[in-house]
Specification:
By secondary structure, this protein is of the alpha+beta class. It folds into three domains: 5-61 and 103-191, no CATH class; 62-101, no CATH class; 195-350, Trna Endonuclease, Chain: A, domain 1 (3-Layer(aba) Sandwich), CATH 3.40.1350. The protein has eleven helices and 14 strands. It has helices at 5-19, 29-33, 39-57, 79-87, 105-119, 125-135, 163-176, 193-211, 232-235, 276-289, 335-350, and strands at 62-70, 76-77, 93-101, 178-180, 186-188, 221-222, 241-242, 245-249, 252-259, 266-268, 271-273, 297-305, 317-319, 322-330. The longest helix is centred in the first third of the chain and has 19 residues, at 39-57.
């Protein structure tokens, strides 16, 4: 998507470091010193460092249900299975019990992701060798089919908080970069725009939370501005208005809707225009939040800049008393320039 893959991939690391603060700890500093030409090499490096750190602390364990045929009673007796064994004249008991084990969903996902990166053709051999050394410590952990992972079952608490970054990287690798071949194996794809959009959104919010906390950055849900009591039967069919970033200072509010597309502008009637759906969306957010029609609520479409695209960087325009604007954030420049651009947005709208 950008001309200089090295800078672009390095900026992905910086965006991840805002989305997941753990990346700023000493363990990961060597990653920033490396130059990556492929996104999966970056992910392999992050995983290797994170898993090495986790191995030192001890792999996460939890109670996992087990069922075994034993000579002595353990846990709860499975009566039907025990009767079956008795009919087969086996002097065994079918027991069900919980075992405190590292062979759980979290470690299975880690092992499976590292394994897929090791067998993938496009990953650098040096990264593969590092991952192989970490895989040795997962001998008691089973592999899991990548397309059978129940991602929504993952819950993070104090005992496994360090796994959040690692399993998010695993998700990006397994769901966004792997596709099944005809023989049932997996191969790496390019990093998808869909996953990049989610990272871009999370990064912008995290950046403002760290550097402009006085603006109370948050991702808020906006209620529809009903002029009369709504019909509860029909209101359930209205789409939810989930904002990416809302900044507030005094009476002024800025709603930022982040976008990541291969091309920000579209061709319409022999000229390039902003995407109408995006304008309708940000306008709906602004007008429904500005219930009193004060004009104190503004909206901004913030696009990740695509290569070789001319984007109009003029002043915001006013629609119905409210300022509506559109800007780009070039991800192919030094990261300090990206930060400066985000700071400038705050200055422009609030100062």
């Amino acid at each position: 998507m950008t001309n200089d893959k090295g800078i672009f991939i390095q900026n992905i690391y910086y965006m991840l470091s805002y989305a997941f603060r753990i990346l700023r700890q000493d363990d990961y500093k060597k990653v920033t010193a490396e130059k990556f030409e492929k996104i999966h090499d970056l992910f392999a490096a992050i995983l290797e460092k994170g898993v090495a750190r986790q191995i030192k602390q001890g792999l996460y364990r939890e109670y996992v249900p087990q069922q075994e045929e034993l000579s002595v009673m353990r846990g709860k007796l499975n009566i039907s299975e025990t009767m079956r064994l008795e009919m087969q004249q086996k002097c065994r008991l079918s027991c069900e019990f919980d075992e405190f084990s590292e062979d759980n969903l979290y470690n299975r996902i880690l092992k499976t992701t590292m394994h897929q990166l090791v067998v993938a053709k496009d990953v650098d051999e040096k990264q593969k060798e590092k991952l192989r050394k970490r895989l040795v410590f997962f001998g008691n952990v089973k592999l899991i089919q990548p397309d059978h992972i129940p991602w929504k079952r993952l819950i993070y608490q104090r005992s496994n908080r360090n796994y959040e970054l690692l399993l998010n990287i695993c998700y990006l690798v397994l769901s966004g970069m792997l596709q099944t071949t005809e023989d049932g194996s997996y191969k790496l794809m390019a990093f998808s725009d869909e996953h990049m959009e989610k990272l871009f959104e999370r990064f912008v919010l995290a950046y403002y939370k760290e550097h402009h906390s006085d603006l109370r950055p948050a991702a808020k849900q906006i209620d529809w501005n009903h002029t009369e009591a709504p019909d509860e039967t029909m209101i359930q069919f209205l789409p939810r208005m989930e904002t990416d970033v809302v900044l507030t200072k005094g009476e002024k509010t800025l709603i930022i809707d982040t976008k990541y597309y291969g091309k920000s502008m579209i061709q319409s009637y022999s000229k390039e225009t902003l995407r109408s759906a995006h304008l309708y969306q940000i306008f709906a957010y602004v007008k429904n939040m500005d219930k009193a029609n004060t004009g104190n609520v503004s909206g901004l479409l913030l696009y990740a800049k695509t290569e070789d695209e001319v984007f109009p960087e003029g002043a915001p325009f006013v629609i119905g008393h409210n300022w509506i604007g559109a800007k780009t954030l070039d991800l192919n420049v030094d990261f300090d320039v990206i930060k400066s651009r985000l700071d400038h947005i705050v200055d422009e709208y609030f100062k």
